[in-house]
Specification:
The complex is a heterodimer of chains A (534) and B (307). Chain A has 534 residues and is mainly alpha-helical. Chain A has 22 helices and twelve strands. Chain A has five domains: 75 residues, Winged helix-like DNA-binding domain superfamily/Winged helix DNA-binding domain (Arc Repressor Mutant, subunit A, Orthogonal Bundle), CATH 1.10.10; 111 residues, Winged helix-like DNA-binding domain superfamily/Winged helix DNA-binding domain (Arc Repressor Mutant, subunit A, Orthogonal Bundle), CATH 1.10.10.10; 97 residues, Arc Repressor Mutant, subunit A (Orthogonal Bundle); 86 residues, Winged helix-like DNA-binding domain superfamily/Winged helix DNA-binding domain (Arc Repressor Mutant, subunit A), CATH 1.10.10; 82 residues. The longest helix of chain A is centred in the C-terminal third of the chain and has 41 residues. The longest helix of chain B has 19 residues. The N terminus of chain B is likely disordered. The chains are: A mainly alpha (534), B mainly alpha (307). Chains A and B meet through helix 1, helix 2, helix 4, helix 6 and helix 15 of A and helix 4, helix 6 and helix 9 of B. Chain A: GO terms for molecular function: single-stranded DNA binding. Chain A: One of its GO terms (cellular component) is RNA polymerase III complex. Chain A: DNA-dependent RNA polymerase catalyzes the transcription of DNA into RNA using the four ribonucleoside triphosphates as substrates. Specific core component of RNA polymerase III which synthesizes small RNAs, such as 5S rRNA and tRNAs. Chain A: It is found in: Nucleus.
Chain lengths: 534, 307
């Protein structure tokens, strides 16, 4: 893993799980697969803490273990999975758009806890929903279960691998670590549970969890005593399915930008039809006939068959080649070129980066070189219609930024420089990788800056929190307006100003992180798709 | 990302590490400093270069491949007048001697090129073009709020392991009332390796040994017994010493339990092998595996009652 990725992983782990887990996690990412004692020795932490940290990491699917010969168990960290933690808000928001609040909370619970049993998820989500509802209303478990089943059917949640229940006929020693297996067909199989119940509303006295001694808190012990019907069957969020959804979204919006709404609907229909038939890593979807597409169009769209055919022809003829025609049977067989679509999206990202960093004339040269593949210095000037001096300057700026590279073509075997062609070219894969690396660095910088800002104003933040707590408690006990005013004035006007600025900055930094992550997703998908094809 | 050095903008295309002697400290063992300041004049350098025919084969750089260095090797001054000599092979010295047709890359003759930058680029460079404003919309706002909320929530989850704070000199009164109570989280031990379970520190002498023997299966137990007997017989002559060694062996076995359970079988095997191979030696190498855990014992079997 590159240094930038390791740094980013370290920041993410520290924010989410604390320093100890971060130390262990980063050590594993750096050094690869290691057994327990070596980790404890190298990081200098006690065995007990290493165990706790590893338990947390394994629970969240960030570390996997493997039994090697002689019974040694080695632990390996998944760096790419750690980087997915950036995308959690996007996953949860997607679930909200597709399955409304219930789906959103289910996915949130699964992401926050790594793995959970279905009954535990349903119970927690029902409790949370009940709290937000009006007094007297409760959320039924059945409704939450239904949403869960729907999520499983559309593959957004999947089962975790489990220990096969073999009868231990051989009196051999128990293995040092369980070997977890899962088969394809079982992955989305929902166990038949009859979860009956309603969400419980937490009583108001329980809400103030901070400051209450443990003994006074009512125990949720009653639930632990009941046997859990689906014990051992854990569920996790299926991130690949979410990625497929994001990719489809990106393609549809690209088509909508380039052409119009109707064509994007046609493409969306085609993608929806191929969700189940095509694995997400294929370069293109299964061929779909025009008749099928016509039948599957959403009900609201009443375009005639001829119009649909025209749209499909237009899409197939488009130079971007999102849609391709693969045959003539059934009114025309059409496929969506997923790999080409991802390539176009990555290229568009590169172009826009060049434009924003170097200016529109540079972007023109960049697009020119992209289109013509290889160009000499002179030709660039001629085609782009930019004076030689400026063209040279721009080319070298882009060259030193590694967006463009030079290709040498010797005329003579001795590669004499005076007799060699030097051609400018764009290697999309390597430029995409360079940009991806830069994105990781950017996010690491953004997180660091945000932490710095928060630390700078820590005292002020704490003070404002205390004041808010005081006001809240006073309002609960029914204080007068005058007293509230007095308390509010504890924070002076310049301090308020400072708080406002801090809030604005932190929001901006957070929003930037989310948007850089979108770029990361596009670039990663493109690189992955290209590597699979090679 | 400015490149510093001679040919700005061109270096990226050259295969790195070859040809440019200032980067190439390859098999000839050339010292960079010596390369820049040849002692003994040109001929000495040439001799050294030509003395390693394999080095020349290594040098895949297009500028130098197949060339004979009978021509000038001295560095050239840093302007473009030198370009007239196409055979100047001195670009290996790190000076800006343009040995190629400069027209090919578009610079005019005698043109003033920008100065060589000899320091890293500034930390916060001025940008000509300001960044585009962020996307704003309902979705983005919601995701922003979610992100901040998640950050707070994660800190309160049981998975967030706090670093144990150092003891402060004065215990603050408010600290007692500001503690956040977290739920305990117990992982599902069936899904985790056995070594993850927290060990209970209790002495389990002969009992655990028996368990281990059972675990290893019949054959090993036999071997263990046989080995024990052999050892005893071997050391019969020393009397006390043999008893000591037996005790040490058993003690060693116990201590090896402190290590990981999956190491047990391996450690035992090793131990027996060691003792087999070792002669008359009081020191068993695997005696103390880990001084820290001395005395701690392991749970071999979850079903077994703990003492």
């Amino acid at each position: 893993m590159t240094q930038a990725e390791i740094k980013l992983c370290s920041l993410l782990l520290q924010e989410h799980f604390g320093e100890i887990v971060e130390k262990i996690g980063v050590h594993l990412i750096r050094t690869g697969s290691q057994p327990l004692r070596v980790i404890a020795h190298d990081t200098g932490t006690s065995l007990d803490q290493v165990k706790k940290a590893l338990c947390v990491l394994i629970q969240h699917n960030l570390v996997i273990y493997q039994v090697h010969k002689r019974g040694v168990v080695e632990y390996e960290a998944q760096c790419s999975r750690v980087l997915r933690m950036l995308r959690y808000p996007r996953y949860i928001y997607t679930a909200k758009t597709l399955y409304s609040d219930t789906g959103e909370l289910i996915v949130e619970e699964l992401l926050l806890n790594g793995k959970m049993t279905m009954s535990a998820v349903v119970k927690k989500v029902a409790d949370r929903l009940t709290e937000t509802m009006e007094d007297g209303k409760t959320m039924d478990y059945a409704e939450v279960s239904n949403t869960f089943v729907r999520l499983a059917d559309t593959h957004f949640v999947q089962r975790c691998p489990w220990v096969p229940a073999t009868e231990n006929s051989d009196p051999g020693p128990p293995p040092p670590a369980p070997i977890l297996v899962i088969s394809e067909k079982d992955m989305y199989l929902v166990p038949k549970l009859s979860l009956i119940g309603k969400g419980k509303r937490r009583r108001s006295s329980d809400e103030d969890a901070a400051g209450e001694p443990k003994a006074k808190r009512p125990k949720y012990g009653t639930d632990n005593k009941e046997p859990i019907p689906d014990d051992g069957i854990y569920w996790q969020a299926n991130l690949d399915r979410f990625h497929q959804h994001f990719r489809d979204q990106a393609i549809v919006s690209a088509v909508a930008n380039r052409m119009d709404q109707t064509s994007s609907e046609v493409v969306r229909t085609m993608l929806r039809m191929s969700e189940i038939t095509t694995p997400s890593t294929d370069p293109f979807t299964q061929p779909l006939s025009s008749n099928e597409i016509f039948r599957s169009l959403p009900v609201g769209y009443n375009i005639s068959k001829q119009v649909l055919d025209q749209y499909l022809t237009l899409l197939a003829d488009d130079p971007l080649e999102f849609v391709g025609k693969s045959g003539d049977s059934g009114g025309g067989m059409y496929v969506i070129n997923l790999h080409k679509a991802l390539g176009s999206l990555a290229t568009a990202t590169l172009e826009s980066v060049v434009q924003e960093r170097f200016g529109s004339r540079c972007a023109r040269i960049f697009r020119l070189v992209l289109q013509k593949k290889h160009l000499e210095q002179k030709q660039v000037e001629d085609f782009a219609m930019i004076p030689a001096k400026e063209a040279k300057d721009m080319l070298y700026k882009m060259l030193s930024g590694n967006f463009i590279s030079l290709q040498e073509i010797p005329k003579t075997p001795d590669h004499a420089p005076s007799r060699t062609f030097y051609l400018y070219t764009v290697n999309i894969l390597s430029a995409a990788r360079m940009l991806l690396h830069r994105c990781y660095k950017s996010i690491a910088n953004l997180i660091e800056r945000r932490q710095f800002e928060t630390k700078e104003n820590k005292r002020l933040l704490e003070k404002s929190q205390r004041v808010e707590a005081i006001i809240a408690s006073m309002q609960a006990t029914g204080a007068e307006e005058v007293q509230l005013q007095e308390i509010e004035e504890m924070i002076t006007a310049p301090e308020r100003q400072q708080l406002e600025t801090l809030k604005r900055n932190v929001n901006k930094l957070d929003a930037s992180e989310i948007q850089v992550d979108e770029t990361i997703f596009l670039l990663e998908s493109y690189i992955e798709s290209t590597m699979k094809r090679q | 990302m400015e490149e510093y050095g001679a040919c700005q903008g061109l270096k990226s295309s050259w295969p790195s590490g070859r040809g440019l002697a200032r980067e190439w400290v390859g098999p000839t063992g050339w010292d960079r400093n010596k390369a820049l300041r040849p002692r003994g004049g040109r001929s000495a350098v040439l001799q050294r270069w030509n003395a390693y025919p394999s080095a020349r084969a290594f040098c895949l750089h297009p500028f130098l491949a197949g060339r004979h260095f009978g021509c000038t090797v001295l560095p050239k001054p840093r302007d473009l007048v030198s370009r007239t000599n196409p055979m100047a092979g001195s670009q290996g010295r790190g000076r800006a001697a343009y040995t190629f047709n400069i027209e090919a890359v578009g610079f005019g003759r005698g043109e003033k090129l920008p100065d060589v930058v000899l320091k890293p680029p500034p930390l916060f460079p001025d940008t000509d073009y300001k960044p585009v404003p962020l996307k704003a919309g309902e979705g983005e706002d919601y995701m922003l709020a979610l992100k901040q909320e998640l950050r707070e929530t994660m800190k309160r989850m049981p998975y967030y392991i706090e670093t144990p704070e150092e003891k402060q000199d004065i215990e603050r009164y408010s600290k007692r009332y500001m503690k956040v109570y977290k739920e305990e989280w117990i992982p599902d031990w069936r899904r985790l390796p056995r070594e993850m379970m927290p060990r209970k520190k209790c002495k389990k002498g002969p009992k655990s040994e028996k368990v281990k023997d059972m675990g290893k299966g019949a054959s090993l137990t036999n071997t263990a017994d046989v080995l024990k007997k052999i050892e005893e017989l071997e050391k019969r002559g020393d009397g006390e010493k043999s008893d000591e060694e037996n005790e040490e062996k058993e003690g060693g076995k116990e201590k090896s339990q402190e290590g990981d359970e999956e190491d047990d079988a391996a450690a035992e095997q090793e131990e027996y092998d060691e003792e087999e191979q070792e002669e008359e030696n009081d020191y068993i190498n695997s005696y103390f595996e880990d001084g820290d855990d001395f005395g701690a014992d392991s749970d071999d079997n979850m079903d077994e009652a703990t003492y």
